[in-house]
Structure formats: C-alpha cells, structure tokens
Amino acid sequence: MICSKCNTNIFSEDLLTCCFCKANFHFACGGQTERNFRNMKEVNKAHYKCFDCKFKTSPPKQQPGSDLASGIHPATIQMASTQQIEATGLMNKAYFEERFKEMIQSMSNNKEELIHVLQEKIMELERKIEQRDEKIQNLEERLELLENRSRICNIEVRGMPETKNEDVVKVIEEIGRTIGVSNIEPGDIQVAHRVDSRNQAERGKRPIIAHLRSRYLRNIWIQKYREYRKTKANRSQTPANLTAKDVNGQLPDVNISKIQNISKK
Q1: What is the pTM of this model?
Q2: pLDDT by residue (tens digit) across 182-229?
Q3: How far apart (Å, rounded) are the C-alpha atoms in residues 108 and 254?
Q4: Where are the domains positioned within the chain?
C-alpha cells in the first residue's frame, strides 16, 4: 500500500485512511505524532480526514456544461455535497464529544488523586506539628528545671536603698552580719546585683538578687532573717522589720521589706 503523500510503502500498523477521499497515509504524513496515533481509538481512525478533505468548505467548481456532459444533474451534485458536509459535521461532533468525555474523566481521576495526596500531606504536617509541640514542651520543662536549679541558691532583698557607687556584694555582706550570719567567707556570696522593677514604690530601692555558694547557706540566711525579726519584735513588743538604718547607720530608717528565696517562678 502506497502513501498518497510520500509515495512509499505503508505498513498496516502505521496506516491512516481518509474516510472521505479514501487516500492512504503514513500516520506522520497524515499529521499525527506517533504517541497520538498509537493512542487513537478505532472509531477515531475510522473518522480520520486528511488535510485536503478537512479544510474543504465547498465542492469544487464545475466547468459550465460539465455536469450535463457527465450525465449528472447539478441538483444531485448539490445534494451529495450537502450530505457530505452534514456527515462531516456529525463526525466532528462525535469526535469532540468523545475527546471531551475523556478530558472530563481524566480531570476527575486527577482530582481524586490530588485530594488523596493533599490529605496525606496534611496528615504528615499534623504529625510533625504534634512532634514539634511535644519537643517544645519538653524543652520548656527542661529550661524551667534549669532555671529553678540556678535560682536554688538565690535570695532576694527588697527595700534596701541604693547609694552612689555602691558595691552590692558588700551591701549583702553588711545585711548578713546585721541579721547574725557569722563568718561570711570570700565566695559565700558569689554574685549580687540589682534588678529593674516596674513598681514605682521601689524607685531608688531596686531589688537585690544574691547568689550564695550553696543551698544550705541560703537556708541559714533565711533562718537568721526570721530570727532577727522575732528577736527585735520581742524587745519592742510590736512587729518589727529589719531597716536600712540597722544595716548602715548612715542610711534612712526604712524597712527592708523582704529577704526571701526565689528558687521557683
């Protein structure tokens, strides 16, 4: 079988035949890619039209008198042309309807697959978020534990007036000696500093945080402070507080409101 375009032999598996002019073509000569041709259904191959037939919009012009000379009445030719155009329209409609159905089915299949993939992704993200939240909670608990451990040897002093160029460690030593902590050695008070406060009443008397050498030493300071207040109250028969003047005679007679531990938030 010979191709009407390239005039070479055609293997049967590569054959396309125009449904109108019955001309035979290689699928490539007929304007089809190999992929499209291999995927073509038999009904589409049966309705295949070559380029010449596809773009014909009217029957070829007849020479005057040629219809009569051939013995075919012009009305018959016109009717045949009309039927050919109608058949072409019906086949085109069937072809496009088939292609449209295939496209809709493909979109539907892709939609279901996409929904499934998205659902799996969402579940994976939810698992990762849950794992991340668990890690954050564990880290927060560990951080709180470390902070509590770092504060376990701390005491807080409130109400002690500030002085110019003060040495906060020496201030804490003076408070310790006043409340009866004896034999304060170097290193017992490892660090001491004042911290900012939003309380307007503490302006000029910012709280002091002191980190002592051990938890045992911290407990001694707290105990001595309580004993000092109790002893002073027994002397005056009234509730008594440690004052700044008790610590340093040059300071005003204002209460040191608290000496307490801050091992927890």
Answers
A1: 0.44
A2: 888 988 999 999 998 888 878 888 999 999 988 889 899 989 988 988
A3: 83
A4: 1-55, 105-151, 154-261
Using H for helix, E for strand and C for coil, what is the string for the chain?
A: CECCCCCCECCHHHEEECCCCCCEEECCCCCCCHHHHHHCCHHHHHCCCCHHHHCCCCCCCCCCCHHHHHCCCHHHHHHHHHHHHHHHHHHHHHHHHHHHHHHHHHHHHHHHHHHHHHHHHHHHHHHHHHHHHHHHHHHHHHHHHHHHHHHCCEEEEECCCCCCCCCHHHHHHHHHHHHCCCCCCCCCEEEEEECCCCCHHHCCCCCEEEEECCHHHHHHHHHHHHHHHHHHHHHHCCCCCCEHHHHCCCCCCCECCEEEECCCC
For domain 1-55, the question of CATH label 3.40.50.1370 is answered with no
